[in-house]
């Protein structure tokens, strides 16, 4: 609390835009850097999304460019308005307080910026930033000794989240939109939600096995023999009447699920490593092998593959034991499947799913009339979440997610690291912990306090 009441008399030049004494020029520099980076990010993102969604020619001619420019304007405005509010707030208050250079400047800037973005994207941005802010607050609490981190806490959190998500997936009208489609893709159409039913009530469906009765005149090759053998192994085996995987028995159903998602996870990780690998291909050709034989590739594959196989195996087991299919099975199966995160521990994934789950429960509460609807709630939450992250970026970078800090550096062309954080150490957050070797050279004609390293004037 004592740190909150402290203040420093330094100007915005001495603390923030140390590379240029003029506020207007500093704002222009940030705008130029943010505009270039935003165009690169959203140009690539929207183009890839349009290709994957198989958009028609009309979209490329009339909608693609406006969407890119609008999202670019949003992100550029967020950076520009932050440095502008940073300077304005200093002039209004006459000094800097603990909250003003980070949270205070980012709050109005982020709120004004998000209003530029399309409404359909505000929810996604809000979830992303809420996830960032929650993790940042957790890191801050751990650094201050207020919270003791739990061993494998991200795995436990994922187990709980996965259990609830799979339960909602199995319930009627439990999930909609992208979340429903994503889970359907991961666990398969055989686990599409249905009402609880017993074998007596289950619709009888005869296994559709295609029997080749025609006599083959030519000798069968190895591939066809292997396929025929696999079909016999998969289709002849134990399968409960409530199970809807009619083409497979329960064992092969789980094995196929593992192989499918392991392959997808492996390929995803390979694709993510392609840009960094090909950047050094000609200088270090040996890196090409690391693209395919990398530990993370197998870890992500094992995580996704084991998640699906454990979920399917547990669901089948419970159907055999209880002799009925029930959405409550998804709670147990989802929780056990969450243990698969031991192969690929990720706080980011766990926190994102928690944010998404909170959003799902909130909207379900609105539909049921149990929770009030707050207009512009997404914009407000986005502004507060972004402000928390900016507060950490200014005062305690060590508690900010490294990937987000790198993003801020790219957006500002490295200028976020040029802040005079040694002066901010007075607030007790170790602001200069990662910047011990940096002291800005300041023009003494524009400073309130004599600088540590004055700029030599000719």
Could you describe the 3D structure shown?
- This protein is mainly α.
- It contains 18 helices and 4 strands.
- It has helices spanning 2-5, 12-15, 23-52, 57-62, 64-93, 100-114, 119-143, 153-170, 177-187, 222-235, 250-279, 287-292, 295-322, 329-337, 347-367, 377-395, 402-411, 421-424; strands at 7-8, 96-97, 441-442, 453-454.
- It has a two-stranded antiparallel ribbon with strand order 1-2.
- α3 runs antiparallel to α5 (64-93), α8 (153-170) packs antiparallel against α14 and α13 packs antiparallel against α14 (329-337).
- It is elongated.
- Residues 195-218 have low confidence and may be disordered.
Notable traits:
single chain, 458 residues, mainly alpha, two-stranded parallel ribbon, 2% strand
Number of DSSP strands?
Answer: 4
The gross shape turns out to be: elongated
Low-confidence stretches: 195-218
Mean of residue pLDDT?
A: 85
**End-to-end gap:** 45 Å
Structural class: mainly alpha
Biggest β-sheet strands, sense, barrel: 2 strands, antiparallel
Gyration radius over CA: 28 Å
Spatial strand arrangement across the major sheet: 1-2
Q: Treating each run of at least 4 consecutive H or I residues as one helix, how many helices? A: 18
Give the arrangement of secondary structure elements.
Layout: H1 2-5, E1 7-8, H2 12-15, H3 23-52, H4 57-62, H5 64-93, E2 96-97, H6 100-114, H7 119-143, H8 153-170, H9 177-187, H10 222-235, H11 250-279, H12 287-292, H13 295-322, H14 329-337, H15 347-367, H16 377-395, H17 402-411, H18 421-424, E3 441-442, E4 453-454
Helix pairs in contact: 3-5, 5-6, 6-16, 7-15, 7-16, 8-14, 8-15, 11-13, 13-14
């Amino acid at each position: 609390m004592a740190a909150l009441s402290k203040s420093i008399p330094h100007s915005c030049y001495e603390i923030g835009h140390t590379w240029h004494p003029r506020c207007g020029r500093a704002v222009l520099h940030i705008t130029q850097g943010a505009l270039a980076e935003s165009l690169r990010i959203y140009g690539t993102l929207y183009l890839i999304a349009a290709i994957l969604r198989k958009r028609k020619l009309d979209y490329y001619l009339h909608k693609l460019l406006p969407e890119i420019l609008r999202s670019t304007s949003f992100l550029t405005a967020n950076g520009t308005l932050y440095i502008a509010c940073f300077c304005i707030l200093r002039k209004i208050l006459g000094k800097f307080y603990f909250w003003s250079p980070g949270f205070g400047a980012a709050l109005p800037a982020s709120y004004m910026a998000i209003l530029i973005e399309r409404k359909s994207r505000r929810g996604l941005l809000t979830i992303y930033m809420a996830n960032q802010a929650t993790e940042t607050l957790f890191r801050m609490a751990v650094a201050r000794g207020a919270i003791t981190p739990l061993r494998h806490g991200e795995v436990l959190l994922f187990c709980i989240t996965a259990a609830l998500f799979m339960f909602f997936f199995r319930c009627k009208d439990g999930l909609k939109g992208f979340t429903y489609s994503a889970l359907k893709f991961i666990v398969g159409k055989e686990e599409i939600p249905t009402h609880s039913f017993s074998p007596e009530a289950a619709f009888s469906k005869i296994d559709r096995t295609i029997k080749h009765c025609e006599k083959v005149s030519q000798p069968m090759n190895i591939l066809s023999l292997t396929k025929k053998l696999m079909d016999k192994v998969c289709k002849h085996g134990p399968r409960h009447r409530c199970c809807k995987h009619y083409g497979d028995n329960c064992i092969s159903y789980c094995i196929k699920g593992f192989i499918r998602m392991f392959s997808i996870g492996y390929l995803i990780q390979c694709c993510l490593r392609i840009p960094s690998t090909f950047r050094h291909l000609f200088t270090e050709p040996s890196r090409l092998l690391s693209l395919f034989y990398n530990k993370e590739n197998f870890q992500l594959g094992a995580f996704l593959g084991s998640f699906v196989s454990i979920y399917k195996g547990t669901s089948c087991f419970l159907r055999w034991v209880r002799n009925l299919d029930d959405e409550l099975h998804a709670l147990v199966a989802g929780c056990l499947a969450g243990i698969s995160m031991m192969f690929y521990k990720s706080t980011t994934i766990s926190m994102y799913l928690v944010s998404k789950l909170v959003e799902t429960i909130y909207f379900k509460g609105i539909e049921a009339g149990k929770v009030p609807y707050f207009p512009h709630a997404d914009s407000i939450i986005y502004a507060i979440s972004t402000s928390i992250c900016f507060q950490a970026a200014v005062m305690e970078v060590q508690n900010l997610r490294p990937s987000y800090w790198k993003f801020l550096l790219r957006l500002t062309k490295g200028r976020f690291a040029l802040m005079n954080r040694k002066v901010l150490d007075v607030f007790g957050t170790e602001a200069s912990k990662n910047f011990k070797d940096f002291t800005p050279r300041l023009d003494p004609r524009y400073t309130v306090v004599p600088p540590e390293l004055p700029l030599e004037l000719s």
